[in-house]
Amino acid sequence: MEARKTHLRHMAGSAVGDLLKPSRGLRDDIVRAGGTPKDHAKQNKLMLKDLQKANKAKKEDMQKPAPAPFKMKQFEDVPSKLQTRRPSVSNTPFSSSTPVLVTESRPSTASSTSSRGSGKNFININASKARESPTPRTPRTPDLKQTERKTKMGEIPKYLVDRKMEWATKERERLKKLEEQKIPPGMMVMPEQERLETLKFLEQNRDTILSDMGRFPVVIETTSMKRRKAELDEKLRETEAAVEVFSRGEVLVNRREYDARTARAAT
């Protein structure tokens, strides 16, 4: 309890001191806390002195003469080959700057020397010869013979028609093979002619059933008539289902049953 009172008294005293003498910044806070703030000006001066010393040492190193290139003792008196004087090229009779005259036929040395001394202007002579010589004409290309058309304008050639028909046949065969691959084993596609005949028979049978059902009275009282009406309804549903099946493009039938039925019909 006594320690708490002492702590509160110190806190109150420090608060009053802060009010009477407020802080003037971070450095003042460090001094009040018993520390010593850094002297940044002194540190900057020391850093500048170090930089000056480094620059001075660098300049002294640059002003020092470069060391002599290393050479073995046995070759100290031997001069460098690069320092030897080469013979001048200007002493040759013809330098690279001497103009060279190109003519149609290469003259000999004696003739070229005499022509150079005669003072003739070979440039003008060559130009006049070029003007006098006839200009070669490029041969005209012969006119290409126009090929005769075997078909009329707008008519498709026969080979294109044949090729299209061949492509269509191959495409039908390809699609047929794909469809055959989809057929389950033991089944086959009913021939188109037989499918159409069966469909026609089923439609006629459906019309007959509808005609028979139309003869019934509105109110059916007897049991036999009710039974007959139910039989016709069932038969009509089966016939309509068969018509729907045979109306498709392909009808799958059992191969064994189809072969047996075909054999019985043939006998």
TrEMBL record:
Region entry Disordered, spans: 1-24, 51-148
Cytoplasm recorded as keyword: yes
Species the sequence originates in: Blyttiomyces helicus
Annotated Enkurin domain residues: 162-254
Polar residues: compositionally biased ranges: 81-100
Biased composition (Basic residues): 1-10
Signal peptide: none
Name of the featured protein: Calmodulin-binding-domain-containing protein
Major localisation: other
GO annotations of cellular component type: cilium; cytoplasmic microtubule
UniProt-listed InterPro entries: Enkurin_dom (IPR027012), Enkurin_domain-protein (IPR052102)
Pfam families assigned to the protein according to its UniProt record, in alphabetical order: Enkurin
Keywords linked to the UniProt accession: Cell projection, Cytoplasm, Cytoskeleton
The keyword Transmembrane helix is annotated on this UniProt entry: no
Basic and acidic residues composition bias: residue spans: 51-63, 129-148
Composition bias type Low complexity, residue spans: 105-119
Cellular localization per UniProt: Cell projection, Cilium; Cytoplasm, Cytoskeleton
